[in-house]
Amino acid sequence: MPRIYMIRHGEAAAGWDADTDPGLSDKGRAQSEAVAREIEARVGRKLPLLSSPLRRCRETSEPLAASWAAAPAIEPRVAEIPSPIADVAERGPWLRRLMAGTWAEALTPENTGHGKVDLAAWRQSVVDALTERKEDTVIFSHFIAINVAAGLATGDDRLVTFRPDNCSVTIFETSGTSLKLIEQGREADTKVN
User: Fold this and answer.
1) What pTM was estimated for this model as a whole?
2) How far apart are CA 79 and CA 126, in angstroms?
3) Which contacts qualify for 28-32: CB closer than 8 Å, 24 or more apart?
4) What is the reported pLDDT for 89?
5) DSSP notation for 95-163
6) What's the mean pLDDT in 4-21?
């Protein structure tokens, strides 16, 4: 069964409620160097690399990509949860409210902006991006996307089943139709960024 190493991006230079596409902070760049070494030690060989199109994930992938002389494929389906709110200052409260509940609660008109975003389709696209993998793969992604996979793998409907730290590695195996959680990534009391 293909193994998926899903890495949360390093610490961003700004929060989700301050910048729609921040790069990494200095600490985030150091974290990305460390996780590249960790992955190299864990797998011992080059694997396909996928990254969310957002800067913080692309920048997190750079040290491993440079070491393996491989460019990550950009995979929009593992990007950040879409927001129906245009005002970045209002996105943080919306997401915090969503994160306190379940997917059943999240998929209401109040939370999807009355059809402006299709959270159910986004959630399914994350699952599809992972279950379609035919070989071991390293994926650079986001807090909620990693929780989508963990929730599917464990049968947990909460938006947040655990709090993956920046540059933590969560490992799944896929049968092509389902996910199995092999190792939950390191947790921290972390902000979403």
Assistant:
1) 0.94
2) 8
3) 28/56, 28/59, 28/60, 28/166, 28/167, 29/59, 31/60, 31/166, 31/167, 32/59, 32/60, 32/61, 32/62, 32/63, 32/64, 32/167
4) 84
5) HHHHHTSBHHHHTSHHHHTTTTS-HHHHHHHHHHHHHT--S-EEEEE-HHHHHHHHHHHHT--BS-SS-
6) 90
Burial of residue 130 (CB within 10 Å: 0-12, 13-18, 19+) is buried
- 43-68 pLDDT tens trace: 999 999 999 999 999 999 999 999 99
- Residues 149, 147: Cα–Cα separation, whole Å: 5
Of 149, 158, 144, nearest to 102 (Cα)?
158
**Structural contact between residues 136 and 4, judged by C-beta atoms closer than 8 angstroms:** yes
Question: Is the per-residue pLDDT at 22 higher than 80?
Answer: yes
> Do residues 149 and 183 make contact, with C-beta atoms less than 8 angstroms apart?
no
Sign of CA dihedral 119, 123, 124, 128: positive
Closest by Cα among 46, 44, 71 to 58? 71
Please give the single-letter amino acid code of residue 140. F
Structure tokens at 56: 């913080």
